[in-house]
Design goal:
about 260 residues; 2 strands; two-stranded antiparallel sheet; mainly alpha
């Protein structure tokens, strides 16, 4: 058991090519599970989808137990939002709570599975020059995507009448994007006071995230380099002095 724990610890913490590939695999698995959850949201769960959901739940459970086993601070890990999201996802997959109409909001929490990938992205930062160059845009894009998916799932769970539409999630996603972009076609609206307040929330938060994404795409490129004097981490690629304290910074460049 000690050798197994040492092996797993290496997979989660080491910087060897095998460990990095393992963590990349976790990111891909996280993305696939979220995609599976959202693609099947409008399907009635028969035998095949039930088996697939159980397999996904078992894989998530095993991965969570492995992380807890090798963690130096299990209590800290248990309080992280991505761990709590995993626990809720596992419970919903095995207890079928999401089938009950009044508990459909658990689909919202399933979207939090994406957050599990965030703490693994430092591998991309180390191993991919393209990712380092576009890191801000990637992070802003992921944040916007997660928000859209969660807002659409919330709309579907609480505000879409499934008796009047055959595609409740598509309608919810359509409403979310139309509201977030302030297009406001008006063919789908939330008429209750709570629905109107939720629409305001989607517009304010969604537009803010969209603006941050646009800024990350079009703003001048920055590089990550920590100033040894003041700690400023974002600098122009050709910077010689830190803009905050004036100290000399030695940023590696390719030359003229």
């Amino acid at each position: 058991m000690r050798d197994l724990k040492k092996f797993l610890t290496g997979l989660y913490t080491a910087h060897t090519p095998g460990a990095v590939r393992f963590r990349y695999g976790l990111v891909i698995f996280d993305a696939l599970t979220v995609l599976f959850f959202f693609l099947t949201v409008n399907f009635e769960y028969g035998f095949a989808l039930t088996v697939l959901s159980r397999v996904a739940g078992a894989a998530i459970l095993l991965e969570l137990l492995a992380r807890l086993w090798v963690s130096e601070d299990r209590w800290f890990l248990l309080t992280r939002i991505y761990t709590l999201a995993d626990i809720v996802v596992i419970a919903s997959l095995f207890l079928d709570l999401f089938v009950a109409g009044n508990l459909a909001f658990l689909w919202v929490l399933r979207g939090l599975r994406l957050i599990q990938s965030y703490h693994l992205l430092y591998d991309l930062r180390r191993g991919s020059g393209w990712f380092r160059k576009h890191e801000d845009a990637m992070a802003a894009g992921i944040n916007l995507f997660v928000f859209v998916m969660l807002a659409a799932a919330t709309t579907r769970a609480f505000f879409i009448d499934e008796t009047v539409t055959d595609t409740p999630y598509v309608d919810a996603l359509y409403f979310t994007v139309a509201t977030l972009s302030t297009t406001g076609y008006g063919d789908i609206t939330l008429g209750t006071p709570l629905g109107k307040l939720f629409s305001v929330f989607v517009m304010v938060v969604g537009v803010t995230l969209f603006v941050r994404l646009a800024q990350a795409i079009f703003q001048p490129e920055k590089v990550n380099f920590t100033c040894q004097t003041c700690g400023l981490m974002r600098h122009d690629p050709d910077a010689i002095h830190c803009k905050h304290c004036g100290s000399i910074v030695h940023i590696k460049t390719r030359g003229a």
